[in-house]
Specification:
By secondary structure, this protein is an alpha/beta fold. It has 5 helices and 11 strands; from the N terminus they run βββαβαβαββββββαα. Strands 6, 7, 8, 9, 10 and 11 form a 6-stranded mixed sheet that branches. The protein has a 5-stranded mixed sheet with strand order 3-2-1-4-5, with helices on both faces.
């Protein structure tokens, strides 16, 4: 299949294009606030390099969240606009699932608790099991303090939260500093498309685990005071 994939849910801007069974083109750069400016030019350049136009794509794959509020809105709006214009479906993929897939590809982990920094002194997490060539989520996606994350014995933990909360996440198990990448989205896409998970362009919507995305000045001061020795 011809697929375009991108994720802007973290500090990484990740874009990939696959044409048929050939090797995928991958672009990774600083994301954050820059993603809304650079995403479309990067997509246009990569499609040109792959010899593809938007109408040649079978689907647009994107990380739907959880993650940065601005990053998710960027990914959803771009996926929706491009898919509407080309008349093709979109495939929304959970970013935590992409973290688990990246950890599997890099380290061989098949039982993974994926953890991403949610800011506001919290993390997002979810547990995934890889069985018979497919991922299955074990339980709901959670959000809370790093200390609330539980990792069963024999499982690995993966994500970007270690650098932010080095002493507040479970220790003593295998770890992978993985991010949701476009390459991981491409690897996940065939099984998800075969399972009927693609939707029309209007379905390019973000996955929000919490509604509140910022703290007041007083809340930030209280949180800093609580962390002080």
């Amino acid at each position: 299949m011809n697929l375009l994939a991108f994720d802007t849910s973290t500090e990484l801007l990740s874009v990939a294009v696959s044409r048929g069974s050939g090797q995928a083109l991958v672009h990774e750069a600083a994301g954050g606030a820059q993603a809304s400016i650079t995403l479309i030019p990067v997509i246009q350049d990569m499609l040109t390099r792959a010899g593809l136009q938007l109408r040649d794509l079978d689907a647009i794959v994107f990380g739907r969240g959880p993650g940065s509020f601005t990053g998710l809105r960027t990914a959803c709006s771009v996926a929706q606009a491009l898919a509407f214009g080309a008349g093709i479906p979109v495939l929304p993929v959970d970013t935590l699932l992409a973290v688990a897939e990246e950890a599997r590809c890099a380290e061989g982990f098949e039982r993974v608790v994926a953890v991403l920094d949610a800011r506001m002194d919290e993390v997002y997490w979810a547990a995934y099991v890889y069985e018979q060539g497919h991922w299955r989520r074990d339980g709901a996606i959670g959000v809370g303090r790093p200390e609330s994350v539980r990792v069963p014995g024999g499982w690995a933990i993966a994500g970007n939260a270690f650098a932010v909360y080095p002493a507040r996440l479970p220790a003593g198990m295998p770890r992978a500093a993985a991010l949701p990448t476009a390459a991981a989205l491409l690897r996940l896409a065939p099984a998800l498309l075969a399972a009927g998970c693609s939707v029309p362009a209007a379905g390019a919507l973000p996955l929000y685990i919490r509604d509140k995305v910022a703290q007041t000045t007083a809340e930030r001061a209280a949180a800093n005071a609580a962390r002080s020795p």
